[in-house]
Amino acid sequence: MRKRVWQGQLLLLLYQAVPIGAERDSSGKYRVTVGFGAGQWENQRFDCQGNLVSASQVPYSSWGAQLDAWPSPQVRVTGFGGTFQPQPEDESAQDYYGPFGGGLVAFEGHYFGLGAGVMGISGYDGQLVPSGYLRLGSIYSAHFRADLFPPTPVLGSTGWFRAGVGYRDGRERRTSGFLGIAIPPIYGEDAMFTGSVRLPVGRRLAVHLDAIVGPGKEHTQGGAAFGLRYDFGR
How far apart are alpha carbons 210 and 86 in whole angstroms? Predict the structure, then answer.
């Protein structure tokens, strides 16, 4: 009788300490990010010989939201949307005024990540464009990362294409970031520097900061975005 009681207590201890906790930690998690940003692009116009005709300022503001979900530890599904409001000085500048949004599905292995999706942009120059994601290196430390039309609650806050060094971009609630080169919305053709950082400020809350800056032909280009990210679910 004592042997059965001892065995029952051991099984209860194992049941509480191992299977249930491990199963919950390995299932999906969710993150919601809301953000706002503003800045200035430079609209560049060239003649048929490639000579600069004009360079005008394009102030803008943007805001929106993004949801990241992990149905499994190695699959990330992202949806995002918001509004982009440029105010170009030149009426002939590309117009992307209005809502934007899209989605992306990515495989997130330990040392390799790959994703694909689609993004919709408004305005008379608006269109539906493919988005992509590539990571080479550990998701828990420094790695190479490249994004084409990356998911974002603030359009253009890290450029329409970026490539550089990322740091800790997984499911863990830890400080993470990115630093690299970016191509801005196609008002011009000058490469820019971009960076982002996520700083936990609580058990489930984190601050998200993006910045992009670089030269234009006549005007400096740049922008910044601020966001709040909330993690929930297991």
Answer: 18
Give the separation between CA 67 and CA 65, rounded to whole angstroms. 7
Cα 17 to chain centroid, rounded: 36
Contacts of 103 (CB under 8 A, 6+ apart): 77, 78, 79, 80, 117, 118, 151
pLDDT digits (tens, 9 = 90+) for 180-207: 999 887 666 678 999 999 999 988 999 9
Q: Which amino acid is at 59?
A: P
Query: pLDDT tens digits, residue range 141-166?
Result: 999 999 999 999 999 888 889 999 99
Integer Cα distance of 64 and 205 in angstroms? 17
SS3 62: strand
Please tell me whether the overall predicted TM-score, pTM, comes out greater than 0.85 for this model. Answer: no
Which domains, from first to last, does the chain contain?
27-232 (2.40.128.130)
Enclosing H/E stretch for 191: none
